[in-house]
Amino acid sequence: MFVDTARIFVRSGKGGDGSVSFRREKYVPLGGPDGGDGGKGGDVVLVVDTDMTTLLDFAYKKKYAAEDGGNGLGSKCFGKNGENLYIKVPLGTVVRDVESNKIISDLSHPGDRCLVVKGGKGGRGNVRFATSVRQAPDFAEPGMPGEERYVSLELKILADVGLVGFPNVGKSTLLSVVTKATPKIANYHFTTLSPNLGVVDVPGIKSFIMADIPGIIEGAAEGVGLGIEFLRHIERTRVLIHVVDISGIEGRNPLEDFIKINEELKKYDVKLWDRPQIIAANKADMLYDDKLFENFKNEVKKLGYTKVFKISAVTQKGIKELMQETAAMLDLIPVTDVEISEEDRFIPQEKKFTYNIRKEGNVYIVEGSFVDRLLDSVNVNDPDELRYFYKVLKNKGVIKELVDSGIKDGDIVRLNNFEFDYVM
């Protein structure tokens, strides 16, 4: 079963909470705080596995989560870092953020890897908050939450040459002749239902990879037939071999077929249409009049295509010359990585805790992720911690924003379930 698209949910590990602990030893009264930091949460990383050829594994498992970081301990012991989760994907996988549809990474080289979601940072233990004034802090930071997102995986086969053309023109037969690939071959449309790949190894020429793309027909860009489902697999190719049935035994006009296929390529992506093409006029062994080939050759030359070969995949006539020309063209076209524009590239945003202030009567309500995290880290019923709480509000600009909003002495400030009277 060939699967070339998938959508999965990934979540990185939460950072471990910092520890609230005090040194307890015989003969050492008032030992002071010794709570350690929490461990970092595990990352989720995609790595290329050259043994994989499809995204079939992701049809059965769609949720992936890395390990959380361990909580800090006493004696200034740090919590254990969460294990990173490594997910194997085939070579040629394009990773996108589903929400923005932007590209996170293009894994097109052996050994490539991509950090999809980063683990949360561990919280600081209470030893970190000790100062000359606050010598016994009874609070610590909670760990930072992990990230989570849906990502789409799209496999784009890495091939040097792509075979395109209408169904039943002999693409699969040609691939089977010049490579060791064994595609299904039969005399009916849409024999090929998924891309086939093979290495061309003809004596006297440098080997290259060729892909047989399932038949495109008129209206494919609008979803007719197999539609454009597999055209993504020729996006990376450097040269296209456009196979046409020159025999006309099925009542088809090879020139019309050639023009129609190129129109579908242009509708899908103008870069594909503009890619160098070699025309393979196949089934020449069944050609009853050589003038048909000459007329076809002259017409496509008027359209700007000069590389036209008369071949027969069945008898292998003209195959060697076709492969030699293909190899020569590949030598002139360098291998380049797919360019990802700044507009299409996904740039992860640094996680920030935010808040907003709104007023209901004489109550000023401060809410948001910043408030949740602050209240999780302190005990507002402890005077020392309450002073730290107020200091954080002041340092983060919350107090100034309340003043700018018109707060007065005696007005109430509410943060979730905690309220206090504002005093200038």
From TrEMBL:
Pfam families hit by this protein:
DUF1967, GTP1_OBG, MMR_HSR1
- Keyword flag Transmembrane helix: no
Give the matching InterPro entries.
G_OBG, GTP-bd, GTP-bd_Obg/CgtA, GTP-bd_prot_GTP1/OBG_C_sf, GTP1-OBG_CS, GTP1_OBG_dom, GTP1_OBG_dom_sf, OBG_GTPase
Q: Which UniProt keywords apply?
A: Cytoplasm, GTP-binding, Hydrolase, Magnesium, Metal-binding, Nucleotide-binding
Task: Please state what class of enzyme this protein is.
Answer: hydrolase
E.C. no: 3.6.5.-
Residues in domain Obg?
A: 1-158
- Could you mention a single GO BP entry for this protein? ribosome biogenesis
Binding residues for GTP? 165-172, 190-194, 212-215, 282-285, 312-314
Gene Ontology terms: cellular component = cytoplasm
PROSITE patterns assigned: G_OBG (PS51710), GTP1_OBG (PS00905), OBG (PS51883), OCT (PS51881)
Q: Name one GO molecular function term.
A: magnesium ion binding
Q: Report residues binding Mg(2+).
A: S172, T192
Q: Does the keyword Phosphoprotein apply?
A: no
Briefly state the protein's biological role: An essential GTPase which binds GTP, GDP and possibly (p)ppGpp with moderate affinity, with high nucleotide exchange rates and a fairly low GTP hydrolysis rate. Plays a role in control of the cell cycle, stress response, ribosome biogenesis and in those bacteria that undergo differentiation, in morphogenesis control.
Q: Subunit notes for this chain?
A: Monomer.
Q: What name has this protein been given in UniProt?
A: GTPase Obg
User: Which species is this record about?
Assistant: Clostridium luticellarii
Q: Which gene encodes it?
A: obg
